[in-house]
């Protein structure tokens, strides 16, 4: 009994120690965002003098404020999450349940797109959107998420759909449900954990996206949070204080979303057999 | 079966077509004007704090017939963005026939984005360009020839213009001059009884002065940081000043000379032995531009190699009373001058722009208009035009005035056209840095390094060509 307690104590001590090591940069980041720039190099974690200057100064940027950037990012992110859930769910239902000609080949093509490095397609995509006069709009950022939501999400959901017993479909069929009703009434509710997983990934990826936003958005009033953050870093002049403060704020939405949905998220990951 | 085969072929074609698009060339073809009406309206919002009512009405109105739409892209920090937006508002107000939309980013984002736009034939009409990248963009044929389109003779001499030509063609208008010289705190030199250095001093005079100064300094204080810590640039400057050699030539030549390399490293080894530069460990622990660990700021180094472009920011790290006590001097002068002195930033016109004449008009206005100059101040370095400089002179801070003093002592001793380390040669620069540090730490001898760099440099060079 005593030995067990000691062993447990040691385990917790080690866990706490390593957690601290992992968490230290984040703790440093938190406190540093309240320090004056000239105090940043100071060894003590605790700011000598607490200041909100970084937050005040960082919130405004080139005549705009982060309020605009947050609004823009939230809009893009929500559209992407909704698009992913609606369209990826339907595509997954098609691949997982329906039979049509060339199904396996189409699915293989879809999987191949997952292996394409994004650099390969970037120029052709840019030319396409540019010719359609859609640069400097959010269309290039949102549209792909409304066309099946990407191979990864389809794959994730297909795996889940395949795990749902077909008996449920058949029972519904006998009760007179068509394909659409089977999906909407039977599968859609069951797939909730998988949708939460897909939704969270889609949220975090859209929120953290930088490259395509940088490429397609030109007007600063359409800038997103990640583009706004990048504005703090110039060639020889990095505004560390505001950068730390604003980037700290920028991770809060992802954290909140994750913690709210933690239970479903873990469930979704476990049942689809995919590890993030 | 046939259908299945067809599907497979279709799939293969799709994948191939996606891959093939990457190699699209930058052939000039007609591209759609990049500026949408929406973009135009947004710009007004971006600049709303600085825009007058009149300008707002003007910019939000639907494009009038005959109004030429231009896009202007630059990189920079917040101060540069705000000043440039204001200046462009003034341009739009005063030019009825042209309307400019601004797109601005920080350095990193800019150079991530431009390659894609360049390959897509969709570069903005006017873009800010850096000397490190201009050769690549010229080689890709995406910058317009503006030699005969822009007349800069009212702000600089023909000789000055000619140094910016690449193969006799002008691709960019210089934005602001930059260069490198020494700065020092006068009272510190007084304290140790060291005479002020004389601008235009030769290498011999510099050597004698530095060794004499080193002998007068207490422990923990040195004359200057070790140039071998930034070995590629330092050796390039050294051989350029003494032998007019460009190690990595614009024409693609490779002019590394092991004997010159040995001479450079031996020279600084001798200086290190005389205590002019700090020992390797101390030297490496100093960080330029950091209030506590910058050797010049904390008083452990006498001289600083400062750039005109950012010397004011360095000086601003000093307490106010020191800022008025800064002396300036040129780098040591060899047979071919001291160091580079030129613009490292340019305004270029894209080859794909349908409105090159208007683009040139905008560039000409930015670099020479007095009112524009008053708004832009020194956000892109010292103005090229003297007239513009005189107009902004009264508003400059103490530290910015030092930049001007530095410019005045550096300008007469300029070497031929200098380029930033070309981007492709990052490996070469790293190799050089590692070897320079190996000598400083005593891990390699000068002969070993010269031999090694000759071989590995050639290797890197061959790989790139």
Separation, N- and C-terminal Cα atoms of chain B = 49 Å
Helix/strand class of chain A: mainly alpha
Which residue ranges of chain A are poorly predicted, with pLDDT under 50 across at least 5 consecutive positions?
none
Oligomerization: heterodimer
In the predicted model, the low-confidence regions of chain B spanning at least 5 consecutive residues are 5-62
Count of discrete structural domains of chain A: 1
Q: Name the overall outline of chain A.
A: flat
Features:
heterodimer; A: 276 residues; mainly alpha; MetI-like fold; two-stranded antiparallel sheet; flat; B: 465 residues; alpha+beta; D-Maltodextrin-Binding Protein, domain 2; 2 domains; 5-stranded mixed β-sheet; 5-stranded antiparallel β-sheet; 20 helices; 46% helix
Description:
The complex is a heterodimer of chains A (276) and B (465). By secondary structure, chain A is mainly alpha-helical. Chain A has helices at residues 2-32, 53-59, 66-97, 103-115, 118-131, 139-142, 151-163, 166-174, 179-190, 192-208, 211-216, 225-230, 240-260, 262-272, and strands at residues 60-61, 64-65. Chain A has one domain (65-272): Orthogonal Bundle (MetI-like fold). In chain A, strands 1-2 form a two-stranded antiparallel ribbon. In chain B, helix 4 links the parallel strand 1 and strand 2. Chain B is globular and about 75 Å long.
Question: Could you give a quick summary of the protein structure above?
Answer:
The complex is a heterodimer of chains A (276) and B (465). Chain A is mainly alpha-helical and 276 residues long.
Describe how the helices and strands are arranged.
The complex is a heterodimer of chains A (276) and B (465).
Chain A: H1 2-32, H2 53-59, E1 60-61, E2 64-65, H3 66-97, H4 103-115, H5 118-131, H6 139-142, H7 151-163, H8 166-174, H9 179-190, H10 192-208, H11 211-216, H12 225-230, H13 240-260, H14 262-272
Chain B: H1 2-20, H2 37-46, H3 53-60, E1 68-75, H4 78-94, E2 98-105, H5 107-119, E3 126-130, H6 134-139, H7 158-162, E4 172-174, E5 176-185, H8 186-191, H9 203-216, H10 231-243, H11 258-273, H12 280-285, E6 303-307, H13 311-315, H14 320-323, E7 326-329, E8 341-343, E9 345-349, H15 356-368, H16 370-376, E10 382-383, H17 386-392, H18 398-410, H19 426-440, H20 446-464
Helix pairs in contact in B: 3-4, 4-16, 11-20, 16-17, 19-20
